[in-house]
Amino acid sequence: MELETVIGLEVHAQLLTQSKMFCGCSADYAGAPPNTHVCPVCLGLPGSLPVINRRAVEMTVMTGLALGCRIPPYSKFDRKNYMYPDLPKGYQISQYDLPLCVDGMLEFLVNGQRRRVRIRRVHLEEDTARLIHRTIGGESYSLIDMNRSGVPLIEIVTEPDLRSPEEARLFLMALRQVLRYLGVSTGNMEEGAFRCDANISQRTRDGQRQWPKSEIKNLNSFRSVERALTYEEARQRAAIGRGEQLVQETRGWLEEREITVTQRAKEYPDDYRYFPEPDLPPIFWTEDDLARIRAAMPELPLPRWERFQADYGLGPQEAALLTEERAIADYFEACVAGDRTQAREIANWITGELFALLRERGRSISEVGVQPRQLRQLIDLVRRGTISTLTAKELLVAVSETGIDPEVLVAERGLAQVSDEAQLREVVERVLTENPKAVADYRKGKTAAIGFLLGQVNRALGGRANPAVARRILEEALRQPVE
Ligand SMILES: [Zn+2]
After folding, report:
1. Were 194 and a residue from 187, 298, 443, 455 both cysteine, which residue would form a disulfide, CB within 3.0 to 4.6 Å?
2. pTM recorded for the entire structure
3. Alpha carbon of 146 to ligand 1 centroid (Å)
4. Vertex 43, ends 132 and 125: CA angle to 5°?
5. Cα 98 to ligand 1 centre (Å)
């Protein structure tokens, strides 16, 4: 009996709006003291009335459009009723039967191959409060921080199209990349701005038999998604192999022990007693509204990756590095500035020296202090032979520290290479006179001796000898007959 793994994901992403979903409180609560970003609406006090955050709705629709979803002309909010301390009003405002976006698809790469996963829906809801569990004086307490309550949250639900834990991780990374390109979410998993629940089940490859699924919660990194699913896949297959019953249930991933454990039997939609939210109007879309949102969308990662290969002659790996973040892709194109002849050289500099500098300083490309124009100038200085590649690498650091243009630094610090033939010839002749043994070795056929002589020329010029010109003059001098 050959088994096939079936995985579907439910992803929650906090939206990067200034205010919360249904009130004017600031949604940027990171680092704020508990319960300081609150008001009667997001505290769920009786009699308070929610107001829809228009920007959050537009961001959700933009996400749906980026995922190729259909945007139905009519959508509404519903109450999802359940009792839990993180939800003091006893219900969450969410969307049930009429979500903002339906029937989409995300295309992404698995080992260089294209994969498509269908998106069932994208809907908008409010985040819940955060519970903090503490032991105080030997007693256990659960404290509630309401700052997160009411932060706009989108839920993206896939069809069960994923077939392996690795695919699930790659899908999630691609989805996060899209959200970040759109600027609708930070996608930060560690901070809880991007969260994932995964459904996993087994079926026979012919689809004749299938087993109940587990829903895994508490996955807070891409790595834990893949590992938890790998664990669960093995657990389900082993149970089936032993002829045991599997039950539909919710399981939690215990990061330290690397296992999943039963949390509770799975709820069904009926358990939530959904009903339309009476305090909010429905949402209607016109084609004009959608055209306006579509027009504000940036080019998406996958098409941009393809275009970078086609337009700039980059390899797939290099194009992937440069399009991983929108800011880096924008930076690269600002450096190229319409002149494609230097595109590959620029790509090398960004993925090599500049990335190394970013890693070393722990900075993002917008914080590194090297303007695209300045990187381009640096590359042009090397191409014209004014400075060596080594000098350019040092200058990159100097530009990042000072913000001064490379051309100015070259002039100020006297870093220009010596390409002047008369000056080089003079130095070469002196070096040859001072190193008769190396010269004799070279003339006896030990051509490697030229490396030593070239080093001496360079040293005499403080490391600024133009290597190509210096080598040519040195070779010419060595070919002269012995006097
Ligand atoms: Zn509020």
Report:
1. 187
2. 0.87
3. 9
4. 85
5. 25
